[in-house]
Amino acid sequence: MPTNDRPDPHLSQTVDALIKDRFSARFFLPTPVDRQIIEEVVDAARYAPSGVHMQPWKVHCLAGPAKDALAADMLQAHERKAEGTARYAYWPTPLPDEYAERRREFGKFFYGRQGIEYRNEDARAASDARNYKFFDAPIALIFTIHQDLRVGWWLDLGHFMQFISLGLRARGLESVSQLSIPKFDAIIRQHLPIPEDELVACGMSVGYPDLARVEQSYARPPRRALEEILQFHGL
Fold it and tell me: What three-state secondary structure class fits 59?
């Protein structure tokens, strides 16, 4: 319930740190994640805002043999360059120039940190294969949404996912959201009871980060300046 209590003066610093220090973790320790932690985080994330209280999100949590079996099938499909079966298009065609340039710059940055030439498609594909192993994380989350819901409710799903990401960070875990996962929608349906009127929207790998390996390969990509994003009117 809403409260008039004064917030903890340190709360804003804590929340800001959770947000600003977040990173996409792609190396994880094999340390198991307790089911109760996932339940606590998703329970809190249920309070994410949504238009007319639609709460359009669903999430499947996989671990152990269930996760490994799905990962093996997706990895095999990736390696044989199987045609994707995603039920929505993530990239517009063509991508507007401004965003196409950002995509290229990130690709050079991301693969460059791994010692991979951006033009080396085979090396990039080998690196991308780790997506389909959920980066060896102990937990994989698969998010679904009803196929008939429009853009606004996808924003709501994003709120829900962000709350999960921050809730995990607050408990010492890290995650990486994976827009590569819906590519193999049909394979995922062979492993999970997803209704036909829902589609796979996104994946997320979750676990305790292997910080030693993260530090070897990770560098924080540059962010747009605040002045490029924020405009004041009447303030």
Answer: strand
CATH architecture of the domain covering 25-88+131-221: 3-Layer(aba) Sandwich (3.40)
- pLDDT (tens digit, 0 to 9) for every residue of the chain, 235 residues total? 666 676 787 899 999 999 999 999 999 999 999 999 999 999 999 999 999 999 999 999 999 999 999 999 999 999 999 999 999 999 999 999 999 999 999 988 888 888 888 788 888 888 899 999 999 999 999 999 999 999 999 999 999 999 999 999 999 999 999 999 999 999 999 999 999 999 999 999 999 999 999 988 877 888 999 999 999 999 9
3-state secondary structure of 82: coil
Q: Tell me the domain boundaries of the chain.
A: 25-88+131-221
| Spatial CB neighbours of 60, under 8 Å, sequence gap ≥ 6 | 141, 142, 144, 192, 194
